[in-house]
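Per-residue structure
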Amino acid sequence: MKNILSRKSFWALMLLVNLTSCDNDGFLKENPTTFYTVDNAFSTSAQVDQVLVGAYAQVRDLWANPAEEGWIFVLRGNGTDMYDVASIRKGSTFNNYGLINADNNTFYNIYSTYYQLISKANLALEAAELPHISFSSPAEKAYIVAQAKFFRAYGYRNLAELFGGVSIVTKVSKAPQYNFERATRVETYQFAINDLLEAEKDLPETTVSGGRVVKGAAQHYLAELYLAMGTQLVADGKSAEGQAAFAQSIAYAGKVIDGGTYGLMTSRFGSRSTEAQGNVYWDLFQEKNVNYQDGNRECVWALQVDYAAYRAEDGRSKLPYSRTYGPVFRDGAKDHLTGTLEDVGGRGIAQIIPTMYVRDGVYADKFGADLRNSEIVFRRVFYGNVSTSPYFKKPVPWEVLYNGSGDATTNLNNTSLVYPVSCKIATDKYTGLADGENMSNLFRDDYFIRLSETILLRAEAKQRTGDKAGAAADVNLLRERAKATYKVTAADMDDSFNLILDERARELIYEEARWNTLLRMGGTIAVDRIKKYAYWPEAKATLTFNYNLWPIPQTILDTNKDVIWEQNPGWQR
């Protein structure tokens, strides 16, 4: 969304968003002549659009996490089977269930943030209907409404997958309310689906520049929501309705996969395609290669990062991935590797780390030969850069990196700090070094939706209908692109969806919202995998109950005092 934001009017409108959700009775009784309301804050359609710009900015910050907020790392997967925390950050663990309960502020931050997004969407929808707002054409208005409904659906999609049924709010709040009724999880899914069905009609197939949502993004989330709803319906004993939902999931995924707009990139492309050391999967994550408009037919929707905007005024326009996701060789392997340069993956501080399952487990044995496991994509070879090391200018063995100490605890801690480096979080060509930037940030755009995930959603939906052969065929679309030597068969598609989840880890590391995936799958899948793959032993020791939803934040239960909500199973006090 480069160059579409007027800062002064944007912040005035964001003030309105905050004021309309304020719960202070005394404040609400004031009636100053300059008080912003929905009726008087808007005079042009461009101002309505700037509310949507605020929504785009919010989801960008929720994904890129430029402020490095701990609760957003949880949203990105900390505490799942894929990610944990390093020894130096054990205070930020999200795997010690002696500390995780409904009072945990992480749950409240995530829950309330999605309602803030919903509030922006509702504000835009109400403003678009004001009689004094004129639009250049009916199509302009329809597009604004479609984007607003998309973001409202996006908010409810996340709330339903993570927390289950919640309150459906469709209007801007103008007074305190303490009696919100709670919808069921299926009803919440259905509301989001209805919004997306409306949005799909008026979203464009493509846009001139990247960032704005398109029809394929709505169709992708329709595929995910029908899949999630079908899973819940089956769990509720409504098998026939569940199967109908799975069929819809397959159909909407097919619109994206087979509709002719999108396609997997299967040959070298983009800004660095002539460099011999790369491959097509590596190309997907290079600067100037991410957007559909860059020739990347795999990109359905991407967040926008602009280095010039970052330098001028938008300090959040960055991906701090090398810093937040990168290893700390200078601590864990300081006798052999040190520093913060490209040779160690940049200036990493290991805010969250990949588990051993992600590092090695998903590539064990017959799954090892795969472009996604190639050295250029998932770097495992690091050359000693300490002159006194016997491995100076030589590859340092992982046995030495992991177990260089005679003390087992030290080795365990070191192992948490050093790990392979994905091309998604680091580069050999950092932007901005001449301007004084260090190797903490990437300045490329990043994916919200890549076609690969749509394919994996369809594979799962097919498997849930009993079509394991069709599911395997979809998974093999990705494995063939990755030049994996082993192709899966129907026999590999186990009933606990381990193959699907493993393939998602191989394809979507550092891209997937893993908590959404695990919790929407139901049963004990999330708990089982956390116990099995969490890096630190506290998870297995303290996770003594089953759950497939996060708890409703206790603050929400307490504040909604006029209607009693039941806490989600497993989290009751």
About this structure: Residues 203-304+445-511 form a domain with the Serine Threonine Protein Phosphatase 5, Tetratricopeptide repeat fold (CATH 1.25.40.390). Residues 1-15, 19-33 have pLDDT under 50 and may be disordered.
